[in-house]
Amino acid sequence: MEINKAKQLFVHYYGDEDGFVGVGVGNETGKPVLKVYVDNENSALAKRLDIQRSFDGYPLEIVVMGAVKAGG
Fold first, then answer.
1. Torsions phi, psi of 13, nearest 5?
2. In sequence order, which ranges of 1-72 are alpha helices (DSSP H)?
3. Is 49 in contact with 62 (CB distance < 8 Å)?
4. Every domain of the chain and the residues it spans
5. pTM to 2 decimals?
6. In the chain, which end has fewer C-beta atoms inside a 10 angstrom radius, N or C?
7. What CA–CA distance (Å, rounded) separates 33 from 9?
């Protein structure tokens, strides 16, 4: 599966989870990865994904963002 489709599928499965901030695509190592942004490294989602380590064949990179609030 193409990484952008995997990204959309990831949002479908995990987008409503507590701690989820967003997901992007990265390739710092020369290979595509899904960058998962979470608000807290101790959230249940961050811990589960750290164990899972991949989604649909793509490695996961967990990035802690802290709480994100809309500007205004």
1. -80, -35
2. 3-14, 44-52
3. yes
4. 3-64
5. 0.87
6. C
7. 14
Average pLDDT value for residue range 1-23: 96
Q: Which amino acid is it at 42? A: N
Please provide the average confidence, as pLDDT, over all residues in the chain: 92
Backbone region of residue 30 per phi and psi (left: phi > 0; alpha: psi in -120 to 50; beta: other values): left
Q: Which of 14, 27, 21, 17 is nearest to 39 (CA)?
A: 21
Mean pLDDT of 3-18: 97
Which of 55, 50, 16, 48 lies closest to 32 in space, CA to CA? 55
* Most distant CA atoms of the chain, gap in Å: 39
